[in-house]
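Researcher: We're teaching a course module on how sequence relates to structure. For the next exercise, students receive a sequence and then see the predicted structure as tokens, so they can try to spot secondary structure elements on their own. Here is the exercise chain.
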Amino acid sequence: MDRNTIIGFVLIIVVLIGYTYYNQPTEEEQEAYRGQQDSIASFAKRKANDSLANQVVVNKVDSNVISSSDSVVADQNLSQFGAFATSSTGQAKDIVIENEKIIVTLTTKGGYVKQVELKNTKTYDGKPLYLYEKDSTATGINFFSENRSINTTDLFFAPQGPGFAVEGNASKTLVLRIDAGNNRSIDYEYSLAGNSYELKYSIRMNNMQSLIAANTSYLEMDWNATLPRLERKAKGERQYSTINYVYSNGENDYLSETEDEKESLNEKIKWISFKQHFFSSILYAEKSFENAQVATYTDFESEDKVRTMKANMRIPYNRKPDESFAMAYYFGPNHYSTLKSFDRDYEKSIQLGWGILGWINRFIVIPVFNWLKNFGLSFGIVILVLTIIIKLILLPLNYRAYLSSAKMRVLQPEVTELQSKFKEEPLKMQQEMMGLYRKAGVSPLGGCWPMLLQMPILFAMLRFFPASFELRQEAFLWARDLSTYDSIFDLGFNIPGYGDHVSLWTILMTLSTLLFTYYNSQQLNTSANPAMKYMMYLMPLIFLGFLNDFPAGLNYYYFLGNIISIATQFLFKGMVNHDAIIAKIEANKKKPQSQKKSGFQERLEKMARERGYQPPKKK
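Model: And here is the predicted structure for the students to work with:
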């Protein structure tokens, strides 16, 4: 054995001795343990004697056998749970607390929220809506006590009162307790006020510093749930179901909505949300979790379960005689105004789009939508009026785009002539065309910028409608639910790229897009690039399959937008004097032109020189 090996063995022995010395219980902990052991032994003896007496009355069974069996159980519980042995056995019971909005079922086995039902809310098929089903969720804290790993989900809590129902401004509290003897206990406090989606939740440690390992500075909290399907299709609901979270500095993020993901959050966390399409369970910490690990798991073949979500958080523990960690659950809809009313950034769990898309939805679309909703109109009419308002706001941009298009049409014959003349010299052709545009006072990008400025609104609506809780289970014409796809015919089989049903609003949206495309193609000359012409018609057909599963409200909005756009094109056609445009362009051509070249033209010439292009000499 060489010297390095000997040194290695010595270091291992030193580490083991140090670890044993560091983790050995203090005199106070040993005394508490001996007292607890005597208490457990006394309890086991009384239990054995009671059992013996009962059995003698019934059938005079041998008392030695009964006492031996109970003694073994007591010893096993003591060995596994130590001071918590008395709480390791019992019978799980459900305790119900409720108000006007939610019914919460607590279980004495683990003391956690076992089931949540939202009142006055139904699933897609009219059944009572449960955010959790029984045995689909668990919440507990983990810590070391007397060199044992303790998980509260294994222990039985004693309720310090009955379940209750509360209304209006009243509120009540229920305490579930684990008794560890010698005035030591762990309390779960649940407080519920009337007419609220919030359940206040607090973990209180009473004189537990003598039981919990001396080097413990935090407790680990596990929160897991498998979420049931609440909407029409599990696949569609999964696209909007994930874990959201907000850091203590207000920044928010979320796990992937399309695939399973794990993430370690190594900063202070204010809240974590198990979000489904239209409902959320949010766990908020008054003083922040130290950090967290979150993960999602999915059985993509299941039609009953949406996704399994797991979160592990660290709760700070300062070893005080009376110490509590205050939290609050939110069990309710992903309704923007409702979430925002809590002033905890809950509304950030609704994905309204990144950057400017989110701003448009938060500060324009949602306020206007809510304002229209207050008039008591049907949501089909609300969407119609919203579309008209948006189109009126965009009218000046559309007019500028049409005017630019009209100018380009006037120049199209000359552009075609240049394309034919310089078809072998692309860079020269570009230079000549830019010169033509400059002399005529026309910008080739004049019609592009107004259209590009409208794109954020187009994509913002693509995020708004799927996230709009207001449209859930609201019918309009043949669509029974504007928040999901409308189906006039179920195929019974799946067509790749299209789906297993026929959505009429999607078809109408596609047909109106093709009509709008055809009308615009008559205004433009696409003969120079036939591929562009076919692409213009191909894109609506691609979106036919893409949008077939999207909410009927979204396709209805796009359909209305296309119809209004076609109407405004006819309006502009009557307003614009094409003869005046021709006259103005001709007048611009006759004006003396500045020798200064545009930045675009200078870049073209520079690129030509870098490629070795030399324009032909004039004869």
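Model: If you want an answer key for the exercise: Residues 379-421 form the longest helix (43 residues). Residues 1-6, 19-23, 28-74 have pLDDT under 50 and may be disordered.
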